[in-house]
# Entry
Amino acid sequence: MTEEVNSSEEMKEIDVTPSPGSILTVMISILVTTFLVYIYRRIIVRQIRRSVWKSAGDDVVLVHCPTPGYLTPNISPFVMKLLTYLRLAQIPYKLEHDEPMGAKGKTPWITLNGEELHDSQLIIEALSKKFDKDFNSGLSEEEKAIARGFAMMIEEHIAWGLRVWRFIVDDGRTLLEGMKQPFFVSLIKPIFVRSQKAALWYQGLGRHSPSEVENMITADLRALSKYLGRKPYLMGDNLTEVDCTMFAFMANILYNYNRSPYYDIIKGEFTNLYDYVLRVKGRLWPDWNQCLEKTKLK
Amino acid sequence: MVMPSAIGNGPYFIVSEAISSVASVWKKGKAYFLTGTVCFGIVKAIFYYKKQCQRNKWRSVGKDVVVLHLFPRGRYCPNVSPFVVKLETYLRMAGISYELDFEEPLGPKGKCPWITWNGKDLADSQIIIETLGKYYGKNFSSHLKAEDKALGVSLRLMVEEHFFWCNVMWRWIFDQSFVVSSLTDWGTWLPFHWFYRPVIGQLLYLEAYMQGIGRHTESEVLAMGHQDLQALSIFLGDHPFILGDKPTEVDCSIFGMLAQICWNSAGSPFLKLIETDYKNLIDYCHRMKEEFWPDWEYCLQPLEKQRLPKTSFRPPYCKTYEAIVLHE
# Structure
């Protein structure tokens, strides 16, 4: 009897709260391990990757981009622009998905003969100089200026207007629908969406109401449609560099933005843009379906 | 079997300690707390009253008169912001009378310019131009073909969305002679150059970084700006205005931006470019200035040092200048 009482009293006095010293030790060891793993991945794994990339081949462009999408070969229109240009210029390329974000925090970027180039427009200019491909040579000086104006309009205004719909109106759902993502991405999606909304605020278009942005982008699409008119391509009968940009963004609207008002506008009012997308797709992307991601993540 | 001892009582213990400490602070500092609340309330009431006075002043201009809220006047160019020059040029082109307000330059969307008009606040220069154009029935592009209108849209966007950021990068980040501090008397309490310029520069760099152009190096940004100016110059060619013989809304945008290069960017590589290679852009700026800003000198700072004419010169556009001329 007394033994049972003594043992229960002893058990009541066992203090199981961890001492401050042991908590500190555990925390410090977790931090140090995390830091070492980070260093390993940042420095050593990157060096290993780059030595692998050097062996890709001479004059073979290695394009670093996100994994293919379900509806378009890539969810990012800038990647589509670069790939369309590489197909137009018939420059052999390979895709690589380990490090999609480059040194400037943007995608796509390329490695060519061990050298790294960033920003799709700068890449296209460098490649056209290196491989001596000038698709604007058939244009007059004025037409080249016009092409630049339209390229800027698409990349700097329509791109941001589409992001307003994707992140502010649609809350980033197209990111999960358009591309195969690991399971945890749906958990951290709200953080990414919030950072993109902040970027939209800083850029300027995020300050307007979504209906105001819709009016602006519709006016831009109308301008594109009116300038295209009945021509096969934007600047006439031949494909030029601005067609890569235009095709990338119009295809993005048609395939990735099914629920947006811009899809209805292109299908209903500006049908020449829809025909244009099919025309360029048939010419430069005959293997469109093979480039899409097939396996769906459950 | 382990009885819950210190662990189980821990959270309850912490909460009860917190509540008792707040209660003791309240007992000791009741007077301070109440005084603080009252002072806060008084300050809020003063601000509210000032805001109401401001709103009454704006409302008193009358129906269909635009109250334009803008940054202070510049020393070499009527404003430091290209969008303000764009909007003011449009108001002059359309013959809409407007009053100036320098007290609240940043509007409901945190940007400048914005207007108060018939009791409504409108922001974003392009939205304002389209709204006013529809209301007053002014369409300066009606004579154009659909293709030329499309071109106008693309050129305006190239200048406003791309070249604007190249210029921002030069003006606030790359320019080591900090010309921006001397462009106007910013009217700040502390010296603008030492206190406000670095902060605003960093904020604009963050905005440019988010936009994308801020991530490039200096030579890349200047090359992009060069290409934009080249495209503008080639497209302008020999025409008097960008889309032909008559000025349109697009001319307001392009003039607003080029005026910054022409007058507000001493030592800038863009200014060197348009002085040497693209002279038609400088002629274009002077042409727009003579057409829509005959009172250019009276729109510069410092206002009190301008030599005002002896005859009563009444510019048809801006009522505020009538007041200045009459009081002198």
